[in-house]
Predict the structure.
Amino acid sequence: MTLWSRVLIRRILKSFGFWGSIAFALAMAMAARGHGGATSVLPGGVGSFVLPVALFSAMNAASEQRGVRGLIAFPLSFGQAPVRAVLHSAGVLIAFSMLVSGSLGLLVALVAHSSVDPALAGDLAQSTWALGVAGGAYASLFLFAGSYGKRGGGGQFALMADFIFGGSDTSLSHWLPRAHVQRVLGGEAILDWSNKASMAALWMLAIVFFGLLTLRAMRLGRAMLERQPV
């Protein structure tokens, strides 16, 4: 792991918002044990609410509330190419988000598991895999959106859009993680899609937003090197 990777992760681990969200998810899991089980808490409370808030807090902390500019500035000062700086930083953050999200899915499913849930082994595997992929999609979305606005304010709009439109039966919800996350975690089907289709959609969202972020990095990098507004 490079020095810059450790710096980014250390910033996240110092974030109160990040740890507060994780603690809230575990509290919800404990409350759901014997009262609906993991099936009742994973799709709605954790997958659709806690996860996006936790990852938004994580991306915000990693960039020091400056969006993608905060991820580029330090590597650029050492002569690293803008696109390489973004790919490195974003790659580390997306991988970290997938690992943390998958681990959260595992813990919540384990703590909240009850007799109404599927067999424990299968439930743990499914929850870990589904929330891990969802974490990658959310991280990519927030990183790309955070490339807009002087201090990465676009990330806040992305979070609000996911809450407002992601859970609605509209064409816009196809391009936001929320409805797909609920589907792959076994929640109420907002979209008439299969689990496999929604899982594929989450992978696609992660790849598309990462690609858009790469294109955006070219412009941001040139502007920062030339000290021009974007």
Notes: The longest helix spans residues 195-226. The mean pLDDT is 87. Residues 102 and 131 are 5 Å apart (CA to CA).
